[in-house]
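Sample entry (296 residues):
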Amino acid sequence: MSAIKKAILPLAGFGTRFLPATKAQPKEMLPIVDKPVVQYLVEEAVASGIEEIIFVTGRGKRAIEDHFDISFELERTLVEKSKADLLDAVRAISELAKFSYVRQPMPLGDGHAVLQAAHITKDEPVLVLFGDCIYDGSVPASKQLIECYEEYHKCIIGMSRVPIEEVSKFGVIEGDEVDRSVYEIRRMVEKPDPHLAKSNLVAVGKYVITPETFQILSTMKRGNSGEIRLIDAFEILMTNGETIYGKELDGEWLDTGDKFNFIKATIQMGLKHPEIGEKLRAYLEEFVRENQLCHS
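Predicted structure, serialized as tokens:
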């Protein structure tokens, strides 16, 4: 069984929930403190043993390619100004991994986006990381998924628990626990009514998929939504007798897909930042004290 050394990052979406900020820049390039969201994902993948990153982009995403490329003019300026720390940080970005880029010409679904990279992944299992999901934990979330795949050699879906009243925002996973935090999946329901949901485990946009998944995606037609969906490919695999597992990930899920959670992620990562962490904590404590006085 092939080791997982490649990761696909589908990043072709329009980022409409962040307009007007995303009118002229990719949502994935919005910064959490001083790094764009996409860099957190790449660093997570690399820390998990990934050697090649395949970006699936679309129109208006050129900034992602520029970010992970060498910037000769910037590096020369930093040398001239003797900013060694910043120079090292900038150079490290282009050296993180081998980078490839493919385009999704039309927004035809997450499964269609993944399929655009099939000619690069060939017959290998691959990590898939969508752009709204970073994790704060001691063990990288991608490493947890890869280790789970190495045990079961099947598709692995990264999962987290959410309050039951929020399940209507996500794809909900129903399954039977077969080991600590590992579930054999029985059913996947897209955005169910909270009153009807039988689980509060949801997919978080991190997967390990097998070559069989690509084979299914390549034969699929667009569904009622007009899209080719990864969740539909998983359903077909299970119908064909394949077992799919879910891994409840350790660590805190920082969902950067909407404005409120993006701000939460910025605050959390800011509190851990060596340059601003203490100042931010002091500011937040003072802010809370002042507001408590105002409302007392």
